[in-house]
Amino acid sequence: MTGRCRSGYTLDDHPRVAIRPRQILPSTTVSTAPRVLMLAPEPFFEPRGTPFSEYHRIKALGELGVQIDLVTYPIGQDVDLPNLRIYRCVKPPFVRRVAIGPSLVKVLLDLSLATTAIRLARPGRYAAIHSHEEAGALGVWLARRLRIPHLYDMHSSLPQQLTSFGYSRSRLIRQIFERSERAMIAGSQVVITICQELQDTVVAIGAGERAILIENVMGGDVDDADVSVPVREHWGIMASTPVVLYTGTFEAYQGLELLYGAAAQLKRTHPAARILIVGGDAEQVAAARVTAERDALPLVFAGRRPAHEIPSFVTASDILVSPRIAGTNTPLKIYSYLRSGRPIIATNLRTHTQVLEPGTAVLVAPDPSALAEAVGRLIDEPAERKRLATAAAALAARKYSRASYLERTREAYARLLGAGTLPDRASAATGSATAGSVTSP
């Protein structure tokens, strides 16, 4: 396979079972600047959960001196990060977008991704393979073939995705997902988990000694963050109007119906308030606007916005809300919200409580009345808003700093490649390579 990158590169409930990793031969490719093959079965980059997590993982590894060849979907924005080269697989006919969660489109794209990864995975080229989500199955197989170590980046539980996205109730399919997940964990020398619930899952399977918890502390932050967007002016919201902000997707587990129910009550108790909703595909936003106009709800829809604009929306708001009703992964936005200087209201579920401590946010039952009451109370109590925001920022500084994220990432790769493998920070900085992108023929 030949081609050229833009930057000039040439493309030449589980039972407890003890799981032991296989023996790996020392890799001849490990040097002061190890090169890793990374598999990301997502549109990269898009401003949503897993791609954000991948973005910050790649950025941290680049800073630590790891060179990454990323194989990903042919959909998404190119990004410019140190030590990163992007290889995009072939796009199947008629594929324009990739919905969140399991789908037949993802099966087609994963097959295409596998073809590209297999062509790249030559003996002696890589020190390790780093796989995200379902690509762990391919990554484990390739790592065995090349006799190099494998790292599984576990962003979610694959069987749980079937429930969260309402994809299938088939017991057979769930068993396949469960077995696949166990095989990926069993075949990996290191497993990164992004929340306590996933860490507990890996421990219960019997692989806790190879798991390392690295929360997505950077959330949805990006380097080119912009706080100058005139949000209130653009969307016709007066400076004195209380604004409640939701950012995220429109998937059912996010709890937007719960938020709409709370809005119906707020229009009676706090008629001046507005709920600003950022995110959603055009079709989803159009359908939601119909509902809002029919019921005269105090909702303002901004649609999907570039990641760098989100800080402007946060700055323009008074209260941040996360009404999620299902799932156990912590929403990435929670980490950014903690540092935002704005108070957080979230449902009192493990998806939030594994990060949000008492006194750092208002935690409510997943009920419209409870949510509306909490929003109304914070609108009426500016001193409480300030206290909560201060406590949240202190929590972020104490437990969810970027320094801790980098250190745990270094620890994960020390386990993967061996202590002393990564170059020192000075060498890493001078060895950076600019991102490029190539599409597989």
Q: What do these coordinates show?
A:
There is one protein chain. The chain is an alpha/beta fold. The protein has 16 helices and 14 strands. The chain has helices spanning 49-63, 104-120, 136-146, 158-164, 171-186, 196-205, 231-234, 256-269, 282-294, 310-315, 332-338, 350-353, 368-380, 382-399, 402-417, 425-430; strands at 35-40, 67-72, 84-88, 128-132, 150-154, 190-193, 211-213, 243-247, 274-278, 299-303, 319-322, 344-347, 362-364, 437-439. An eight-stranded parallel sheet has the order 7-6-5-4-1-2-3-14, with helices on both faces. α8 links the parallel β8 (243-247) and β9. The longest helix is centred in the C-terminal third of the chain and has 18 residues, at 382-399.
List the main descriptive attributes of the protein structure presented here.
14% strand, alpha/beta, single chain, 8-stranded parallel β-sheet, Rossmann fold, 441 residues, 16 helices, 2 domains
Blueprint of the fold:
Elements: E1 35-40, H1 49-63, E2 67-72, E3 84-88, H2 104-120, E4 128-132, H3 136-146, E5 150-154, H4 158-164, H5 171-186, E6 190-193, H6 196-205, E7 211-213, H7 231-234, E8 243-247, H8 256-269, E9 274-278, H9 282-294, E10 299-303, H10 310-315, E11 319-322, H11 332-338, E12 344-347, H12 350-353, E13 362-364, H13 368-380, H14 382-399, H15 402-417, H16 425-430, E14 437-439
Parallel strand pairs: 1-2, 1-4, 2-3, 3-14, 4-5, 5-6, 6-7, 8-9, 8-11, 9-10, 11-12, 12-13
Helix pairs in contact: 3-5, 8-13
